[in-house]
Amino acid sequence: YPQRHAPETRLSEFNLTEIEAMLGSYTKVLFVRDPFQRLISTFMQGMGSSPSFSSLVQEVLDSGQHNASVAWKPLVSLCRPCLVQYDYVVMFGFLRQELGHLLRQAGLPVDSLLLKFTDTQVRWTYSWLSEQMFSELSLQQKKQLSHFYRWDLAAFPFSSSFLSD
Q1: What is the pTM of this model?
Q2: In a domain, 5, yes or no
Q3: Rounded CA gap, 54 and 56, in Å?
Q4: Is residue 163 in some structural domain?
Q5: Do 130 and 42 meet the contact criterion of CB atoms below 8 Å apart?
Q6: Which of 62, 84, 71 is nearest to 145 (CA)?
Q7: How high is the pLDDT of residue 1?
Q8: How far is CA 89 from the centre of its chain?
Q9: Number of structural domains the chain divides into
């Protein structure tokens, strides 16, 4: 389908037969990140208009799943892991290990292409940030946020997420 394929072409613009053919011919990789860490990242990058983390969380909760920004929309609704059979699911925090495996599978030289990721530092930093940000939230916001991301938490092994409780 090269004549209809362009960088901005969405999968939904093709019919079911074309979608199945395309998805069957690609190696599909899904990069996932703990939803609470995604919210922290959104806040730290200033992508929301909120002055505090707790007000960003309230903005997320007020928007609802259907009107949510891509920055914080649940991954399950964005990537459809129940419909698309991904060949690889790469977890944020394990990028170095998992990208090395992907590069080897693709027959590419791992050492020359793999950046020096510091996963341990990243995990420690997000763990500390998560504790700080989570403490800003009310009990009601925590419960609502866990409900908002319930399908992501069920679909992916975010066992250490603050939202898992």
Answers
A1: 0.77
A2: no
A3: 5
A4: no
A5: no
A6: 62
A7: 46
A8: 10
A9: 1
